[in-house]
Amino acid sequence: MQLGTRWTAGEEPPAAVPAALRAAITSVEEATGPAQAGAPKSRWTLTWLEGRPVAELDAGIIVELNADGEAVVRHDPDDEFG
């Protein structure tokens, strides 16, 4: 069993975040920019689905590995922030 973790966007991801996701997470953070003054910073949640890591930003942006082990970025259309 693998446990997930949370961290604030813009901070160094915890060691539990696989290297294969880190570049895509950084790209998402650069594209979304910093939080607006007075607004809380977004947070990432790392979970594991069928043995694969899935990182989701509060805004519904998801970074996960495809079957080939490549990082894929998508947006959850059902997320309330999207």
Any overview of this molecule?
It is a single chain. With 82 residues, the protein is an alpha+beta fold. Helix content is 17%, strand content 33%. The chain is built from one helix and five strands; from the N terminus they run E-H-E-E-E-E. It has one helix spanning 19-32, and strands at 5-8, 43-49, 52-57, 61-65, 71-75. Strands 1-2-3-4-5 form a five-stranded antiparallel β-sheet, with helices on one face. Strand 4 (61-65) and strand 5 form a beta hairpin. The protein is globular and about 40 Å long. The chain starts with a strand and ends in a 7-residue tail after the last strand.
Structural class: alpha+beta
Number of helices, counting only DSSP H or I runs of 4 residues or more: 1
Write out the strand line-up for the largest beta sheet, numbering strands in chain order. 1-2-3-4-5
Number-wise, the strands total 5
Task: List segments where confidence is low: pLDDT < 50 over at least 5 consecutive residues.
Answer: none
Overall helicity: 10-25%
> Shape from CA axes?
globular
Q: What letter string, H or E per element, gives the SSE order?
A: EHEEEE
Mean pLDDT: 87
Rg, Å, rounded? 12 Å
Terminal residue distance: 31 Å
Question: Quick one: biggest sheet?
Answer: 5 strands, antiparallel
List its salient traits:
alpha+beta, 82 residues
Element layout with pairings:
Elements: E1 5-8, H1 19-32, E2 43-49, E3 52-57, E4 61-65, E5 71-75
Antiparallel strand pairs: 1-2, 2-3, 3-4, 4-5
